């Protein structure tokens, strides 16, 4: 193989690799290095070794944010994948209209901040529509964000709303690429909608399901906008930190308290949590034959 031919693929990849190294790998390495310092951008910087990581183990804010983030990630991932599966199967069977498929992207292209503000107004204890509807059924004083479970549900619903259409569109594209004779033959053999979904749609969609699960977990571990705007408390997401995520905690510690070293340690912990979840989930899905 000529030398020029062998080098050509790497030349095409070079712009991406350079940008990825500068804006992703470099900051990640710098964050991990900063986690070993007591770094005040307005004051002194002192090497403290593993003290920031040891502080994580005794910081209730970190554990609360971790639980919140993991629960919201689980609810949001399950919601968007299940809704996406159902919508993809129904749309593939019922219609091939391009407009219907494009409409699935409406939640995705809608501003996350706008949706979060609207939902916050919807569940507001004093002026929201949800408490007014609850009062019509004899329930008074309904405040979803005042309770941990309610706050989890509200934030998870916002994440699901934003991503279910994109997930469904990916699945519709996979189903549309399959030979239509498969579904026609199954229908002629007497297979109903559930049988077609179980034995045809689901096996075809396994790679997309795996992709959606892994990317949703990673994205939700970095969730910031929805919990920030869901509650007027801002960075704490409620007086009891009902829905404060790890990303909000990083911002609070770093840019409100100016403890950059400790904020970097939390960020490093987020990376380790993501690796500790995504790795086993991928291996599990591979073991059951959902990926290769």
Task: Describe, in short, the structure shown.
The chain has one domain (38-110, 148-287): MetI-like (MetI-like fold, Orthogonal Bundle), CATH 1.10.3720. The chain is built from 13 helices and two strands, in the order αββαααααααααααα. The protein has helices at 3-34, 51-57, 60-94, 98-103, 106-109, 112-122, 129-136, 148-177, 180-188, 193-220, 225-230, 246-256, 260-287, and strands spanning 37-39, 45-47.
Question: What is this structure's SSE topology?
Answer:
Elements: H1 3-34, E1 37-39, E2 45-47, H2 51-57, H3 60-94, H4 98-103, H5 106-109, H6 112-122, H7 129-136, H8 148-177, H9 180-188, H10 193-220, H11 225-230, H12 246-256, H13 260-287
Antiparallel strand pairs: 1-2
Helix pairs in contact: 1-13, 2-13, 3-8, 3-10, 6-8, 8-10, 10-13, 12-13
Structure description:
It is a single chain. With 292 residues, this protein is mainly α. It has a single domain, classed as MetI-like (MetI-like fold, Orthogonal Bundle), CATH 1.10.3720.10. The protein has 13 helices and two strands, in the order H-E-E-H-H-H-H-H-H-H-H-H-H-H-H. A two-stranded antiparallel sheet has the order 1-2. The longest helix is centred in the first third of the chain and has 35 residues, at 60-94. The two termini are 30 Å apart.
């Amino acid at each position: 193989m000529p030398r020029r031919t062998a080098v050509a693929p790497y030349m095409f990849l070079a712009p991406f690799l350079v940008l990825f190294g500068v804006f992703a790998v470099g900051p990640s390495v710098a964050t991990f290095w900063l986690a070993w310092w007591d770094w005040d951008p307005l004051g002194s910087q002192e090497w403290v070794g593993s003290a920031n990581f040891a502080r994580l183990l005794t910081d209730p804010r970190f554990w609360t944010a971790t639980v919140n983030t993991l629960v919201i990630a689980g609810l949001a991932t399950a919601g968007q994948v299940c809704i996406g599966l159902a919508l993809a199967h129904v749309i593939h069977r019922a219609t091939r209209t391009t407009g219907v498929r494009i409409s699935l992207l409406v939640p995705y292209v809608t501003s996350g901040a706008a949706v979060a503000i609207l939902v916050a107004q919807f569940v507001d204890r004093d002026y929201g529509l949800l408490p007014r509807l609850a009062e019509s059924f004899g329930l008074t004083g309904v405040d979803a964000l005042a309770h941990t479970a309610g706050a989890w549900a509200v934030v998870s619903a916002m994440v699901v709303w934003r991503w279910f259409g994109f997930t469904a569109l990916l699945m519709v594209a996979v189903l549309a690429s399959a030979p239509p004779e498969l579904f026609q033959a199954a229908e002629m053999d007497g297979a109903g909608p559930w049988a077609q979904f179980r034995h045809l749609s689901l096996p075809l969609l396994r790679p997309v399901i795996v992709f959606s699960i892994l990317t949703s977990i990673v994205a939700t571990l970095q969730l910031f906008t929805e919990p920030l705007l869901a509650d007027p408390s801002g960075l704490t997401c409620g007086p009891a930190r009902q829905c404060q995520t790890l990303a909000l905690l990083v911002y609070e510690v770093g840019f409100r308290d100016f403890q950059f070293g400790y904020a970097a340690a939390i960020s490093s912990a987020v990376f380790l949590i993501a690796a500790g979840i995504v790795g086993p989930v991928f291996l599990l899905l591979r073991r059951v034959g959902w990926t290769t």
